[in-house]
Amino acid sequence: MSKDLITKIIDITTSETSLGDRLAKSACLLAKELEMEDCTIYRWNDSERRFMAAAHAGRRSDLIASYMDGEGFAFAVATSLRQATIYTPKLESSKARSVHDNGLVGFRSTMVYPLSDGRSCFGVIYLKSRIKKTLSTFKKKQLITSTKQITYTIKSNINYMRLQSTYNEFRTVQKRLVNAEKLMTLGELSATLAHEIKNPLLSIGGYAKGLRKNTEKNSKNAPYIDQICSQVKRLETIIDDIFNYTEERPLCLCSTDINEVIRTTLHLFKDRCSTNKIKIKERLTKLPLHAQLDKDQIKIAFDNLIANAIQSMKDGGELTLVTKKHKEWVVVEISDNGGGVDPKYLCEIFDPFFTTKKGKGPSETTGTGLGLPITNRIVTRHQGIIDIKNSYGKGITFAVRIPSSKAGQPAKT
Hints:
Heat Shock Protein 90, alpha+beta, 8 helices, six-stranded antiparallel sheet, 2 domains, elongated, 15 strands, five-stranded mixed sheet, Beta-Lactamase
């Protein structure tokens, strides 16, 4: 029986099925071969600080779903890295050796074994019986060997997941480096072209405006001249955005109340919001929130975010602005209910020239695709971060986090 147990455990734990399936089969095998009525394998969840049931063999009504950090024999065994055998004469008893454990209720014999490599504990195994039960020395050795094999399986899975995560991060960084090189070349080319195009474009725009002034409103040429003026203005906006993105203007930092910047920015958009039936909700802190800011550049960042929010709410909606202090950060949240961003595009919204804004025609776009990249660059240069909370079909929140400072604190150089 004992050799069969070890062989079967090895066969189960080295199979190509999921970890959950392997642990479930291991729990069933241990309960059957050791003639126990209940076997539960718990895994340690470090983020939640508790042992969570990963596999169970027995009656579901007897299952204790989890043990919090410091609770029951799970904690005692994990701390000492030594197995415990508990006998409780009364079935209703939930306490033994000064340890309270609800897993003891309904059983007279309970065996708890750590899943440990000698240094760390990855979980515990509970084996239970409604009658008094003892294992021979040989069976105990076989059980210990089985727990080591299960420990190895869990540890291998953890290492595999870490390697997979590291590999994915590596591929992401590699992709970003390749894209960065492409974008650098594209940026240089764009800046050169923008300089070459701007002067003739200004001339075209000037001549078109002159023609428009000297053309009667009812003239058949008037619509064409208006279209020229409109498209020239659009091209000028694109070129200005390219300059804003490619030119590395020095920051002029001073300690500034970010609420003041938000109020100034909002004032410029109030008429536009009113025209588009957009309600503005302001939840700004009563006390000033100071950060080291270049007021002109950070205002461009907030302009872009608010303009994007307004453009997303074509049929009206609600624009919400929140400021708050979180630890060492000053946080500005700009939210809209314009439907959010399709998740498949979310990782691309900070890429230059990427836009989902549609124009009047079926293939026409109205955005330059540089608003968010410019915003991201400005925030990054302020040593800040932009977090995104996207609810596709509902709306999106951009949370700009910038390191806080005290009023009057000198700018960092």
